[in-house]
Design a protein that fits this description.
TIM Barrel; 33% helix; globular; binds zinc ion; ten-stranded parallel sheet; alpha/beta; 545 residues; 26 strands
């Protein structure tokens, strides 16, 4: 069947298109206009905005941490009963898998990356992801605090051994990319270390955090993985940690590196409280480092839950839990911490964090290199995205919010002086075209011929938040799944994975390691397609050529 979306403003930055025109969908793909122009069905979208489905590159939507958050905060789940898509839900920490897919789709998102999967938890995470309807998913495999890797580095083994290990871990866990979280910091935490920077060494292993990041960056580069190494830096949340972020940017040394939720690293020590926004300085460093990409991790106000495999940081943050309960667990490699939190607009520190995130968005010049995230649910639940887009698009709206914040907080930021307003093509770049490029996904993030028919149509409104909260129409693989923010149909998505080709001599060694250490075959780590219970649950994304 041929479907025509007629007469909308088509914003497709990947193909340099921003004009009124038609889009045709057939068999799940975007197709060329037919001779004669006759379609089987036509949607009149004149006056509306047509974009590709949005892609979220960093949102914690499945796995053990998310479940621990659900268990720790049952009152958050039940206090605000399931929100109807299309209607602004109260911020909450963790929805069910089913709600997650519906809430994302209602906003026009069609692909989401779960960014923190420990290899030992991969099967459980993929089972949960498969239960999230409509959207396609992908995961990042977490390495960098695992004994096997640290031991390879301690022994100064070859870059080939390291590369093979990274390829093995990625393939086994069905990830799309590799992430490192406070490299070496979680392992150091187990040795009672409570602060850990880029040039600190992991006790017993004698390896610095920098050396771990550099080794993984090189392996990812050599393997030509679709996504660069995804880094959660050291010293998250601490005053003065802008120095850590700047040092990590410099450590990229001209090679691709992605820094996650940079807002949490944009703090200086200025002002009466020795806490200030250093986002302007950080944005300058990002602007200058062309091989580096970042996502923001914007903070918004309200209750949420922070969930992270940065166990050292979460342990140190436990005193700030709101409500006062938390879980810290040690485990293989990273472990994790779950700390509920409420960001308050009247709180000095929270107001500085809010402003610093917006400064990063607005002062980073290139929308191809700054990505739209709240580090869901750490900075805010993903349902706050429409409100953040509205703030980025309106200087006037920002001024209204600023007027409600503590003056002394705003004084240690540059936000009031920033006049930039994001345009719709910039929004489309940041949330569609750029994420697809960052993950090597050629079939999405754009509306060119042959692309997946993942399309979001929005009805313009003076209130941009309203427009982005409830898409007028959303098509996933050519099927209409959302109308006016209400989910019509729960289709089944797939998980996008990467696997560098070739034989791996390391497999024999991994077998010996797991049998020796755990008395188990490493097969227990595998994520077989048959376990998922859906036809064709995985799709392989080719490595870069
Ligand atoms: Zn995160």
């Amino acid at each position: 069947m041929l479907t025509r979306l007629a007469g909308g403003r088509v914003i497709d930055p990947a193909n340099n298109r921003d004009a009124v025109g038609d889009i045709y969908l057939r068999d799940g793909r975007i197709v060329a206009a037919p001779q004669g122009g006759e379609a089987d069905e036509t949607y009149d979208v004149s006056g509306m905005i047509v974009m590709a489905g949005a892609i979220d590159i960093h949102s914690h939507i499945a796995g053990s941490n998310e479940n621990m958050g659900r268990l720790l905060l049952p009152e958050q789940r039940y206090a605000d009963a399931p929100a109807h898509p299309g209607h602004s839900p109260q911020p909450r920490g963790a929805w069910s898998s089913d709600e997650t897919g519906c809430l994302y789709a209602a906003m026009g998102f069609t692909t989401v990356v779960e960014p923190a999967v420990l290899p030992h938890h991969a099967l459980q995470t993929h089972l949960e992801l498969a239960d999230i309807p409509i959207i396609d998913k992908a995961t990042l495999t977490v390495l960098g605090n695992d004994d096997f890797l640290l031991d390879l580095l301690r022994r100064r083994e070859s870059t080939e051994a390291l590369r093979e290990y990274v390829a093995w871990a990625l393939t086994t866990s069905r990830g799309l990319g590799i992430k490192v979280i406070n490299a070496g910091g979680a392992e150091a935490f187990k040795q009672n270390v409570r602060s850990f920077s880029l040039d600190d060494e992991v006790p017993h292993y004698g390896v610095s955090s920098r050396a771990i990041v550099k080794a993984l960056q090189r392996a990812v580069q050599d393997l030509a993985l679709p996504h660069p190494l995804h880094v959660h830096c050291n010293n998250l949340g601490l005053a003065g940690n802008v120095e850590t972020a700047i040092a990590t940017i410099a450590a990229a040394e001209g090679l691709p590196l992605h820094l996650a939720h940079l807002q949490f690293y944009s703090y200086g020590k200025e002002g009466k409280r020795s806490f200030s926004s250093a986002a302007a300085r950080l944005a300058e460093a990002v602007n200058a480092a062309k091989s580096v990409t970042v996502d923001v991790g914007q903070v918004m106000f309200g209750p949420t839950v922070t969930i992270s495999c940065d166990v050292l940081r979460q342990f140190n943050a436990r005193a700030h839990a709101r409500p006062r309960k938390w879980v810290i667990f040690d485990g293989d490699a990273n472990g994790a911490g779950i700390v509920p939190y409420e960001y308050r607009s009247k709180d000095f520190y929270n107001a500085v964090q809010w402003a610093a995130g917006l400064e990063l968005f607005l002062l980073t010049n290139d929308p191809w290199r700054v990505f739209f995230t709240t580090d869901h649910p750490n900075g805010a639940p993903f349902t706050s995205y429409p409100d953040i887009l509205a703030l980025l698009m309106s200087r006037e709206l920002r001024a209204e919010w600023i007027a409600m914040m503590p003056k002394e907080a705003i004084e240690v930021t540059t936000l009031p002086a920033i006049t930039r307003e994001y345009t719709l093509p910039e929004v489309a770049t940041m949330t569609r075209a750029a994420p697809a490029r960052l993950f090597g996904l050629k079939d999405r993030g754009h509306l060119g011929i042959g692309a997946l028919a993942d399309v979001a149509v929005y009805a313009p409104d003076r209130d941009s938040a309203k427009m982005f909260r409830a898409a007028a129409l959303v098509f996933k693989n050519g099927e209409l799944v959302v109308r006016d923010g209400a989910v019509l149909r729960k289709t089944i998505g797939r998980a996008l994975t990467a696997s560098p080709p070739g034989e791996r001599a390391i497999e024999r060694r991994m077998r010996d390691y797991y049998e020796g250490r755990y008395g188990l075959s490493p097969d227990f780590l595998a994520v077989p397609p048959g376990a998922i219970g859906q036809p064709d649950p995985f799709e392989l994304v080719p490595c870069r050529s």
